[in-house]
């Protein structure tokens, strides 16, 4: 018989092992439902930097308490040490290993966030010029014309690729997609829907996400290969949804008139 080794005896109940995950789910629900009253309180806790580098109206605001990384994840990580009865040395070892594991991804993550903020706030300038994001999107839309439905999802992909977030991608491009659709006399909701779908599938080729995942599972160095392989299904998804929406638009079918 093959020796599979001694896996040891479980020293923790199933309920205690699942407790941190249950806490995360509960806290996320409680802090995200406005009717419960905690959401506005957390959102009100902000760190604000006004007139950055002396530039008027260039302000950065961080809702630190509303970030999932702060509440619930860091909060639950601290509570878990008490639930599991960890001593100081065990807690120190866990946090040390965690920081060592994410240190490689932190460089790419910090640079990615900085790039998004730079491009997002570049619209605040003395010349009254469009932001870099808007200028790129407008140029793409003007070249696409009536074929814009095949471009819209990939603008969402671009936003997610740069920022690593469908939410941020939508913040960057949704209003532009809406205005572009109006200019081209296309259903605005359908074009914005393509933006949302593109932002969702774009996460699979986002540098930040791929680097973070590789750091988590210990496969540093294969990020490029993963992005190249994921680009194929990402492109297929984009083309499929674009084709469906384009057929609806070209046939005059608009299920969401406004």
Structure, described:
By secondary structure, the protein is mainly alpha-helical. The chain folds into two domains: 10-86, no CATH class; 88-258, no CATH class. Helices cover 66% and strands 2% of the residues. It contains ten helices and two strands, in the order ααββαααααααα. A two-stranded antiparallel sheet has the order 1-2. The longest helix has 34 residues, at 88-121. The protein is globular and about 65 Å long.
Secondary-structure blueprint of this entry?
Blueprint (H helix, E strand, L loop, with lengths): L13 H19 L5 H6 L3 E3 L10 E3 L6 H15 L4 H34 L10 H13 L7 H12 L2 H18 L4 H15 L4 H11 L5 H28 L8
Antiparallel strand pairs: 1-2
Helix pairs in contact: 1-3, 4-9, 5-7, 6-7, 6-8, 6-10, 7-8, 8-10
List keywords for this structure.
258 residues, mainly alpha, 2 domains, two-stranded antiparallel sheet, 66% helix, disordered N terminus
């Amino acid at each position: 018989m093959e020796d599979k080794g001694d896996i040891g005896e479980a020293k923790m109940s199933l309920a205690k092992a699942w407790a941190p995950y249950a806490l995360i789910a509960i806290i996320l629900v409680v802090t995200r439902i406005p009717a419960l009253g905690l959401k506005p309180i957390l959102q009100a806790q902000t760190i604000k930097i006004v007139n950055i580098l002396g530039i008027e109206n260039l302000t950065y605001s961080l809702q630190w308490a509303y970030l999932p990384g702060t509440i619930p994840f860091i909060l639950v990580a601290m509570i878990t040490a008490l639930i599991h009865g960890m001593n100081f040395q065990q807690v120190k070892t866990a946090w040390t290993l965690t920081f060592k594991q994410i240190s490689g991804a932190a460089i790419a993550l910090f640079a990615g966030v900085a790039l998004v903020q730079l491009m997002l706030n570049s619209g605040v300038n003395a010349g009254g010029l469009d932001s870099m994001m808007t200028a790129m999107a407008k140029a793409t839309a003007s070249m696409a014309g009536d074929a814009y439905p095949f471009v819209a999802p990939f603008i969402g992909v671009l936003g997610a690729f740069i920022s690593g977030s469908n939410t941020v991608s939508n913040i960057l491009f949704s209003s532009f997609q809406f205005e572009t659709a109006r200019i081209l006399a296309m259903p605005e909701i359908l074009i914005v829907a393509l933006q949302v779908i593109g932002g969702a599938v774009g996460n699979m080729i986002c540098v930040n996400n791929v680097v973070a995942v590789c750091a988590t599972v210990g496969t540093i160095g294969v990020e490029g290969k993963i992005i190249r392989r994921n680009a194929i299904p990402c492109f297929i998804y984009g083309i499929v949804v674009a084709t469906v929406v384009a057929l609806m638009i070209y046939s005059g079918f608009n299920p969401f008139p406004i």
